[in-house]
Write a sequence for this structure.
């Protein structure tokens, strides 16, 4: 178990020779689930991600403007730097991916190329619009819109289109969603998470200054809203990343809406407690918090190497890079990026967070012991953390998607008693209303019934 190599879940890296103009579609063709489902909840996730991304980014820019307007130039510069710099990096990556898609589109659309469903079709968006989106720091929205568009086309195609066309829409939706969720995932931990520490420290200092007067400036409320949006952004990015990975795997069961909500609540409450703990460390130790974070990184890197060691063929440097990225993510919340059992991984990671949290709030070193309402914070933070852990345990015990494999359903069939009613291309039948979406099933679905049983421990 310890130091055992595992396959990576964060990145889908093709094995074997690279195929010309394949992109991720060629990989997904072999991994695409036998049963394709797109719910209205999936479309809602795309729309919610777009709205939360815009609100999170522009709220940070608005906070920076408020600080500059009031003459707090250092605070404004810190907020603006940690808002723009990660955004520029993410949009550069997004632009590179767009140009890569443009290059593949031109190759596929060449008159001498045959046998691809892209042939003689127009590009999804013009190059000029791609550049404009990235210049205005809205590049990730392109991928969410693309996923939303093809997901909508999938839901509208159940009466008129063929199975081949539906699979095309599904693959394109998954391809766009995978790019979008990966960009959003890194954006959350490059921009939103550092913003939480910076803005949280600034807000805590000014809250303490204005507490005696009983009145607070209006921008402080705006900053509190921005902090809440950032926590929502981080929590949701982790949930949709896990959901996106499951959607493309034929050996995984997809996530139902209520399971995504449970994951979100667990992440939101534990990340809230973690951010308050980090802000408390900044208030007490100020610049000396940096060595403490490096110490946390060292401890995290050790247990990540022991419990989440990765094996990627011919990609030794990527293995090391992913381990470092995972350790950095663990500053804010535990994340499992390797296949396999999660019990010990989360036990160790949350155990380290709990010890750090209880250390700062039990000792209460000055000036933390003089902070307004410190008694309520001292109790509220561990309670928030405990409720989050309780929801996590309830999720893994009763609501984890893998538990539905005990019903004998195929990996991507998200119904139990109505699985026999799912429509097939050769024998169409009414689609159950519970699906709230559309389903396409191959002939091989029946052969996969009862192929998987739940293991002793739940897997992510």
């Amino acid at each position: 178990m310890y130091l055992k190599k595992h396959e990576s879940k964060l990145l889908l890296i093709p094995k074997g020779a690279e195929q010309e103009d394949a992109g991720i579609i060629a990989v997904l063709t072999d991994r695409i689930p036998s049963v394709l489902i797109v719910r209205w909840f999936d479309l809602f996730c795309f729309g919610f991600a777009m709205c939360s991304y815009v609100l999170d980014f522009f709220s940070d820019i608005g906070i920076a403007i408020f600080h500059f307007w009031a003459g707090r130039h250092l605070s404004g510069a810190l907020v603006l730097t940690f808002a723009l710099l990660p955004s520029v990096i993410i949009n550069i990556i997004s632009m590179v991916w767009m140009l890569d898609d443009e290059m593949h589109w031109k190759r596929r659309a060449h008159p001498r190329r045959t046998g691809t469903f892209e042939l003689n079709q127009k590009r999804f968006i013009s190059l000029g619009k791609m550049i404009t989106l990235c210049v205005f720091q809205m590049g990730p929205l392109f991928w969410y819109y693309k996923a939303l568009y093809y997901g909508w086309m999938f839901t509208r195609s159940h009466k008129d289109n063929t199975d081949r066309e539906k699979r095309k829409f599904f693959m394109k939706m998954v391809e766009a969603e995978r790019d979008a969720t990966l960009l959003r995932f890194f954006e959350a931990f490059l921009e939103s998470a550092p913003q939480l520490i910076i803005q949280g420290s600034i807000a805590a200092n000014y809250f303490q200054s204005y507490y005696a007067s009983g009145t607070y400036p209006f921008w402080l409320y705006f900053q509190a809203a921005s902090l809440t949006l950032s926590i929502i952004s981080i929590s949701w990015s982790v949930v949709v990343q896990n959901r996106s990975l499951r959607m493309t795997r034929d050996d995984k069961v997809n996530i139902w809406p209520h399971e995504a909500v449970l994951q979100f609540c667990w992440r939101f409450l534990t990340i809230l407690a973690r951010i308050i703990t980090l802000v408390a460390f900044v208030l007490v130790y100020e610049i000396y918090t940096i060595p403490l974070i490096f110490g946390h990184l060292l401890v995290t890197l050790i247990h990540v190497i022991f419990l989440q060691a990765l094996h990627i063929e011919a990609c030794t440097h990527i293995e090391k890079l992913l381990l470092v990225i995972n350790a950095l993510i663990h500053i804010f919340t535990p994340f499992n990026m390797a296949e396999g059992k999660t019990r010990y991984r989360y036990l160790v990671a949350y155990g380290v967070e709990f010890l750090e949290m209880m250390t700062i709030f039990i000792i209460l070193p000055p000036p933390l012991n003089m902070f307004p309402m410190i008694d309520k914070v001292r109790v509220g933070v561990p309670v928030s953390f405990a409720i989050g852990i309780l929801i996590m345990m309830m999720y893994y015990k009763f609501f984890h998607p893998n538990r539905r494999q005990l019903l004998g359903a195929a990996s991507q069939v998200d119904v139990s008693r109505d699985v026999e009613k799912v429509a097939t291309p050769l024998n169409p039948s009414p689609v159950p209303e519970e699906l709230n979406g559309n389903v396409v099933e191959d002939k091989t679905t029946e052969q996969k019934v009862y192929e998987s049983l739940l293991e002793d421990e739940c897997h992510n």
Remarks:
- The chain has a mean pLDDT of 76.
